[in-house]
Amino acid sequence: MPKLTLTVNGASHELALDTRTTLLDALREHLHLTGTKKGCDHGQCGACTVIVDGRRINACLTLAVMHEGASVTTIEGLGRPEAPHPMQAAFVKHDGYQCGYCTPGQVCSAVAVLDEIKAGIPSHASADLAASPQVTAAELRERMSGNICRCGAYSNIVDAITEVAGRQA
Amino acid sequence: MRPFTYERARSPAEAVAAATRTPGARFIAGGTNLLDLMKLEIEAPAHLIDVNGLALDSIETTPEGGLRIGALVRNTDLAADARVRRDYVLLSRALLAGASGQLRNRATTAGNLLQRTRCPYFYDTNMPCNKRQPGSGCAAIGGFSRQHAVLGTSEACIATHPSDMAVAMRALDAVVETVRADGAARSIPIAEFHRLPGDSPQMETVLAPGELITAVTLPRPVGGRQIYRKVRDRASYAFALVSVGAIIQRDGSGRVALGGVAHKPWRVEAAEAELPRGAKAVADRLLAGARPTQENAFKLPLVERTLGAVLAEARGG
């Protein structure tokens, strides 16, 4: 089985995996980081969103062997119950979830979304491609569209992200 | 997923040599489409050649004043590139209209062109599909066909090409650069890159086995108002029912390409001569020979109205 080295939440791991192992299964089944959730397993729901080398991706649609030497941040790396990430705290404060299953993916995605806006990456909701994108509700809704919430907590999720963005500004 | 062996290629020459050497091999870059299909065993390559290390991830200005976009440039980076945002607005807009932020961070320029259809019967391995299993029949014909093609269809297949990016590339006269198994490079105009289904819908492009896309080049900027309008069932993260990519010049001339209506981005250069006469005249020429099903006949008026909205927006400033 191919061997690979992954840095996950700052810790280096050596893994020997079947080539078929997705990054998601490597995190959950091999490193036992079960915060990252498997929803559809086809890139449609966003529950598996993690941040790889600074970018949010669907962990279900990529093979672990394709990430030799990569640095992965999962929900466990963002915060802990006793020391939550500001985005996690804002989700709690604004009730940005109900059942919670999509929440780790939502939070990872939201953290990356604010970085993307800060980096000037445009979206479908950006009226002017020449201008720097702003944190508006329309921008957040568009940028978070790859994260489905079956409980429908969307408006509270937008409130949570908006508050964190305001704090950062 | 079926078992497969895996290797990382370090150069295009090494990648095509590996593909030639290994029967049943496929290249993998972003993997967002291929892995989805492998999980469903619609694709079952015996060997994967990871091309992510080929250093084809830069966007360079060409001597002609255009852009040479490396095959591995991610959709996010292409859409955000300052030159694309300024000079090829249509391309940036089309990319941003597609998929989700997570997918655009992985999906590559070449992979986007090579996306396979989202026809539900292609995905459902219990159903016949000539694209998935040549000769088995087409369940979409006579089935649920609301999403399907209205132009260039055949008795064998009515699937659409799902890409937004490719529609912009078609309007922008992009050229696909490849390297073949024998090491020879070639340039394929985007108009000739995708095939219509005919009686072999499993063949979607003119690429030969083992041929690798290395870049997509754009001619020098053509200016004009560049608008990509996508009509879909949700406001975001959905495939097009119909999309219109248009470049409209100050004098009213321009270019129009359609998505969501055929097995390839649909452009009829002769229709563009009708632009001064308005959306109906252009749509009549673009849609000549359309063969919709009962369920997707709405796409014909939808094309005309979407084009009308695009032309009005272009005139408006």
Automatic annotation (TrEMBL), chain B:
<dbReference type="InterPro" id="IPR036683">
    <property type="entry name" value="CO_DH_flav_C_dom_sf"/>
</dbReference>
<dbReference type="InterPro" id="IPR016166">
    <property type="entry name" value="FAD-bd_PCMH"/>
</dbReference>
<dbReference type="InterPro" id="IPR016167">
    <property type="entry name" value="FAD-bd_PCMH_sub1"/>
</dbReference>
<dbReference type="Pfam" id="PF00941">
    <property type="entry name" value="FAD_binding_5"/>
</dbReference>
<feature type="domain" description="FAD-binding PCMH-type">
    <location>
        <begin position="1"/>
        <end position="223"/>
    </location>
</feature>
<keyword id="KW-0285">Flavoprotein</keyword>
<protein>
    <submittedName>
        <fullName>Xanthine dehydrogenase family protein subunit M</fullName>
    </submittedName>
</protein>
<keyword id="KW-0274">FAD</keyword>
<dbReference type="InterPro" id="IPR016169">
    <property type="entry name" value="FAD-bd_PCMH_sub2"/>
</dbReference>
<dbReference type="InterPro" id="IPR036318">
    <property type="entry name" value="FAD-bd_PCMH-like_sf"/>
</dbReference>
<dbReference type="InterPro" id="IPR005107">
    <property type="entry name" value="CO_DH_flav_C"/>
</dbReference>
<dbReference type="InterPro" id="IPR051312">
    <property type="entry name" value="Diverse_Substr_Oxidored"/>
</dbReference>
<dbReference type="InterPro" id="IPR002346">
    <property type="entry name" value="Mopterin_DH_FAD-bd"/>
</dbReference>
